[in-house]
Amino acid sequence: MLLKIGELAKRIGLTIRALHHYEEIGLVQPSSRTASGYRLYNRDDVARLHRVQALRGLGLSLAETRDMLNGGGADLRQLIRQQMCAIDRQIADANDLRERLATLEEKLSSEKEPELDEWLNTLRLMATQRQYFSAEEIAIFQKRAAQNDFRQEWPKLVTAVRSLMENSIPATDIQAKNLAREWIDLCKTSMGDDPRFFAKLSNMHRTDFSAQAITGIDGELLDFILQALHEIRCDVFAGYLDQDELQHYRKHGQKNMQEWLNTFAQTRQLMESQPAPGLPDIMKLMRRWQWLIADTWGANPITHAKVQTAHEQHPEMLAGSGYTADMKQFVEQGMLALMVNDMSANLSDHVAR
User: Fold this and answer.
1) Cα separations (Å) of 329 from 46, 140, 333?
2) How buried is residue 211: exposed, middle or buried, by Cβ count under 10 Å (0-12/13-18/19+)?
3) Residue of 202, 198, 313, 292 whose CA lies nearest to 249
4) In this structure, are 203 and 94 located in the same domain?
5) Percentage above 90 pLDDT, the chain
6) How far apart are the first and last CA of the chain?
7) What's the domain range around 50?
8) Does one domain contain both 68 and 88?
9) Are residues 141 and 261 in the same domain?
10) pLDDT band at residue 251 using 50, 70 and 90 as cut-offs
11) For residues 258 and 198, is the Cβ–Cβ distance under 8 A?
12) What is the residue-averaged pLDDT of the chain?
């Protein structure tokens, strides 16, 4: 049985143009032609077309379908897994959209109808957040927002900080320090004590122009807040460190503040995996802690003891950093394991000599 292209198109449910395209890309070729040049398709051609439609139904592209049928494509099971992953992403995107709509519906039911710009900004910010935060993290953030209505406080605080900056009020000024304290308090209310939230938010506002445009928070504003917080800590350390120690901290402390935040976030992430104290990942992280401590305050253990005393007597200095009691214990255990590891390595080297 031989079919002309029009008959085949009708039986299969494709257009003649589609069959021409299949021929051009080498997907399905007619077995023969009439003396007048009309394409003729036999039973094998029809069977191949059915296989093409079946693979296309799995979501494969024309090129993937052709390679599969010609025997040079990926394993069918692998392609099916890829398609399942793609479907999972589509489902996740649909769920995200539903969550956004539900959030807007809740906002509409609890408040007066927002302006269009407010709607659009809310949608844009939610979309931006999903690039930096997991669905679980966003759910935690939204839960905190429902319990503590802090969303109206952020714009006021950002405006106040921006006003100081525009009026050339330095970060050493008492007004800047007071706003920095408010900033930390609001961060704790918004995000709790998880430094990963702080680190991700900082990264988002430093790099994402959309987030900056919506919230008014950018790298320059964050640096102003960090400088004010640094000045607050310098005021406290002035009562514990001598002039040389304080001078070292003034020079190195501020430049390391973002690095400390990132290190706290890495530590919290590692803590959740509950690793054994001597694992390489912990040793690497503890060496990072050692370097940061030495670079921030110097290498003198006496200075380190003074810093620890200051932190114990002024816990507000660590507020909003994510450095909690359980993290302190984790780091102490890690440092002890690192010391034992280094002593063992030194002993082995000595014996080898």
Assistant:
1) 71, 25, 6
2) buried
3) 292
4) no
5) 34
6) 87
7) 3-73
8) no
9) no
10) very high
11) no
12) 84
Q: Count Cβ neighbours within 10 Å for each residue of 321-344 and write b for 16 or more, e otherwise.
A: bbbbeebeebbeebbebbeebeee
Torsion region of 342: left, alpha or beta (phi above 0 gives left; psi -120 to 50 gives alpha): alpha
Rounded Cα distance between 330 and 325, Å, is 9
**What is the phi-psi region of residue 139: left when phi exceeds 0, alpha when psi lies from -120 to 50, beta otherwise?**
alpha
Residue 212 has pLDDT above 90, yes or no: no
- Using a 10 angstrom Cβ sphere, with 0-12 exposed, 13-18 middle and 19 or more buried, the burial of residue 52 is buried
Q: Are residues 218 and 281 in the same domain?
A: yes
pLDDT at residue 100, as a whole number = 67
Spatial neighbors of 287 by CB under 8 A, at least 6 apart, are 338
Q: Which value, to the nearest 10 degrees, does the dihedral of the CA atoms of residues 8, 12, 14, 18 take?
A: -60
Task: For residue 39, report the phi and psi dihedrals to the nearest 5 degrees.
Answer: -70, 140
What tokens appear for 304 in the block?
């380190």
62 and 177 belong to one structural domain: no
Counted domains in the chain: 3
In whole angstroms, what is the distance from residue 207 CA to residue 217 CA? Answer: 11
Residue 149 phi/psi, 5-degree rounding, is -75, 75
Cα-based torsion angle of the residue sequence 227, 233, 238, 243 in order, rounded to the nearest 10 degrees? -50
pLDDT band for position 123 (50/70/90)? low
SS3 4: strand
Per-residue tokens: 188: 């704790």
What are the C-alpha distances in Å from 240 to residues 291, 297, 302? 22, 12, 11
Out of 127, 147, 167, a domain closes at 147
Among 18, 43, 73, residue at a domain's last position: 73
> Tokens representing 74?
């990926």
Distance CA 101, CA 151 (A): 18
- Please give the backbone phi and psi of residue 32, each rounded to the nearest 5 degrees, phi first: -155, 180
Does position 349 have pLDDT exceeding 70, yes or no? no
Would you say 214 and 128 are in contact if contact means Cβ atoms under 8 Å apart? yes
My answer on whether 141 and 194 are in the same domain is: no
Q: Are residues 218 and 326 in the same domain?
A: yes
